[in-house]
Design a protein that fits this description.
alpha/beta; seven-stranded mixed beta sheet; Rossmann fold
């Protein structure tokens, strides 16, 4: 199922790159946070790739960690990739050109939320990693721009009696770790940050999204720009409902962080049944009872009926 127009995503990235990255503050912030997570891993990686690396914010942050020997960057937009600080591989995140077991590290920052087949892309990444190779990524989650989605939908309903998708759908945290497991990653972990950004008004937010190359690219979006009446009503609703101190309005960006390892025999493994040295009942301070019976704390008399 094709949710996003990947050609439009590429063209919008190219336009953002040509503008010089004036609205790239969020990409720089998340890249720094992702690089800090890489530093928490106490090892180095021989060959790594930054997937959908845009203008190289994550690549620069990772180079400063000295954790990667050779780092490459992929992006479908030549205008953005031209600003990369590392060698560039022209590639789309949906069709990776890397051989099986050719990478020690795959990282990605705020790119994979535009992929139509995220499970399929994760499988490609896992196959490209050598045993015990690391995948570490950040992508926008489902709570991103929920304020804008709400007011645009309501404004369009009020003006036209119907609504089309105006903000792109994004992954949910509850599903993220499951996707890693389905793709074959070991030790999958998913967590999130919620970043709040203040804007003068909703129109300023929309201009920033356009400058970032992050405006709506859903294939079933309504053609043409927003009608003026819809835009005016959305701006009014946004200010009424999401005002911050000082007269600015709030825009929420939920960032999901995913990490997983290519399986390897040297990794920590769960014990086989019967190998435990302690009884769970002893750890919990309860009496061991047959399955189906309720456990009560040790020393507590059971209640009578």
């Amino acid at each position: 199922m094709l949710v996003f127009d990947r050609g439009l995503v590429r063209r919008r990235r190219e336009r953002a790159g040509a503008a010089g990255g004036k609205q790239d503050f969020l990409f720089a912030e998340v890249a720094g946070r992702l690089a800090e997570r890489l530093c928490d891993v106490r090892r180095t990686f021989g060959v790594g790739v930054d997937l959908g690396g845009r203008a190289g914010h994550l690549a620069r942050a990772v180079l400063r960690t000295d954790r990667v020997g050779r780092l490459y960057l992929t992006d479908p937009s030549p205008a953005l990739a031209a600003r990369s600080p590392v060698p560039v591989v022209a590639a789309d995140e949906e069709a990776l050109p890397f051989a099986t077991g050719s990478l020690d590290l795959a990282i990605s920052s705020l790119a994979l939320h535009w992929v139509n087949d995220l499970p399929g892309t994760l499988v490609q990444i896992r196959r490209a990693l050598r045993p015990d190779g690391l995948f570490l990524a950040a992508l926008f989650g489902g709570e991103t721009l929920h304020e804008l989605r709400e007011v645009l939908t309501e404004a369009e309903l009020a003006v036209t009696g119907g609504a089309s998708p105006r903000v792109s759908p994004m992954a949910d945290l509850r599903d993220a770790a499951g996707l890693l497991h389905r793709a074959g990653f070991a030790l999958p972990v998913a967590d999130r940050d919620l970043i709040a950004v203040g804007y003068p008004d909703a129109l300023a937010l929309m201009r920033d999204l356009r400058g970032m190359g992050e405006s709506n690219a859903v294939r079933l979006r309504a053609p043409g720009p927003l009608r003026r009446a819809i835009l005016a009503e959305a701006i009014r609703l946004y200010k009424a409902r999401h005002a911050m101190a000082g007269g600015r309005v709030r825009a929420s960006f939920e960032v999901l962080y995913l990490s997983g390892w290519a399986p390897a025999p040297t990794q920590q493994q769960p014990l086989r049944p019967g190998q435990a040295r302690l009884r769970l009942a002893d750890v919990l301070g309860t009496e061991e009872r047959p399955a189906g019976d309720l456990a009560v704390p040790v020393g507590t008399a059971p209640r009578g009926d």
